[in-house]
Design goal:
5-stranded mixed β-sheet; single chain
């Protein structure tokens, strides 16, 4: 069985990006599709409000403010985290929705994947504090084939060979979202000409031994011989000349 790595909403993959400079790329809003606001009163209080997750495709939450309180359970008064909802390039984050439920007052809450280290952390946010979107595309990285495939509405837009993590720093499998989109301005640098930073992190690199958190990314390389090799610190490397297939991938 082949191992695969999935990026939520529009992407799936992994790797270590601690710092990258350059111009901010503004994602096209056309690649996100608003979902009509749910009507909690129409959902029986006794059952989880699974209607959102019954929608086909990936469901995303776009926070309406610069930070959002994250709770351990629906309806709890005290949050355990105040999550900043923009990245260092001032790009608004999208959060992967994994579940929804009603609290005792009948208000709708969403369980979201948190883009924080270590991987796998989740929390609940009020549905009233986010816009709910459905992603129109996804990116899948097959680690066995060392190949990236981009889809939009189920149609294959591109397939490109990639480099993956070496044995000591393997690319972690999982489902992630695009956390940042950055043009570096230095095609010959360690991240090539363009970076899609992800919401996940390396699971083998100790942050204490890394310059910043070991965030995963799909990023460029000026070395065409990287393709098909296991040579990175966990990131997915794409030859700079093939990054044109990914530059309009949106946040999420």
């Amino acid at each position: 069985m082949r191992r695969g790595v999935w990026l939520g909403s529009v992407l799936a993959v992994a790797v270590a990006v601690s710092s990258c400079g350059g111009d901010v790329v503004v994602p096209p809003a056309a690649l996100e599709e608003p979902i009509p606001a749910p009507v909690p009163a129409a959902i029986p209080k006794a059952d989880p409000a699974d209607r959102l997750l019954q929608l086909r495709g990936t469901v995303l939450a776009r926070p309406l403010t610069g930070s959002i309180d994250v709770h351990a359970a629906p309806g709890t008064e005290t949050p355990f985290m105040d999550l900043t909802t923009t990245n260092p390039w001032s790009q608004p984050l999208r959060l992967l929705v994994t579940r929804d439920a009603l609290d005792d007052d009948g208000d709708l809450w969403l369980r979201v994947q948190l883009p924080v280290w270590p991987n796998g952390q989740k929390g609940w946010v009020p549905a009233s504090e986010v816009d709910v979107l459905r992603a129109k595309g996804r990116v899948v990285v097959d680690l066995s084939r060392r190949q990236l495939t981009r889809y939009r509405r189920g149609e294959v837009l591109a397939r490109v060979p990639v480099a993956i993590g070496k044995s000591s720093t393997p690319t972690p499998t999982g489902r992630f979202v695009v956390w940042a989109r950055v043009t570096t301005g230095t095609p010959s640098g360690p991240y090539g000409s363009y970076i899609l930073g992800l919401s996940g992190f390396s699971e083998t690199i100790d942050p204490a031994n890394w310059s910043g958190e070991p965030r995963l990314a799909i990023h460029g390389t000026d070395d065409p011989t990287d393709a098909g090799q296991a040579v990175s610190s966990g990131c997915i490397r794409v030859f700079n000349g093939l990054l044109r297939h990914l530059k309009d991938v949106p946040m999420g």
